[in-house]
Amino acid sequence: MVSSNIEWFSYTVGAFSLWGGGFLFHWGVMDYPGGYVIHLSSGTAGFTAAYWVGPRVKKDRERFPPNNVLLTLAGSGLLWMGWAGFNGGDPYAANTDSSMAVLNTNICAATSLLVWTWLDVIFFNKPSVSGAVQGMITGLVCITPAADMGLGDLSSL
Predict the structure, then answer these.
(1) SS3 of 54, please?
(2) Coil, strand or helix: which one is 134?
(3) Which pLDDT score, from 0 to 100, does residue 39 have?
(4) Where are the domains of the chain?
(5) In degrees, to the nearest 5, what angle opens at C-alpha 99 toward C-alphas 138 and 18?
(6) Which residues of the chain are under the pLDDT cut of 70?
(7) Could you tell me which residues come within 8 angstroms of residue 3 by beta carbon, excluding any fewer than 6 positions away?
């Protein structure tokens, strides 16, 4: 029931307004690898699920240690590599657009990882692996809709 409502109200409206010659496409809106349609749909689903599930119970919030740091690093490395392929493969050709997408993806992920680690040092007096991974994922998510833009070094901001 929930997934059909999400598909009907969130994904369908976004997809048909942008992809396939929708009205947003005619206004010049660009959605490189589905950043608008997919992120808006999944964000709406996540917000709705978090609202209905509610906050964690108090005992879960007090102590929540990382489970396996080595697997976190391995998984985040695979995620970064796959995300670069996802953004770079969107033009369906090996051209300057795909090269720019891979470059922008890597620059943004690395910059976000370093900034998040630096903020961990400032606010918590020590860097953390989970913070670095969170920064990397934040950078990957942020660059996805504009990965093909020819901004070069400015894209990491």
Answers:
(1) coil
(2) helix
(3) 76
(4) 2-53, 66-156
(5) 65
(6) 1-3, 5-7, 61, 150-157
(7) none
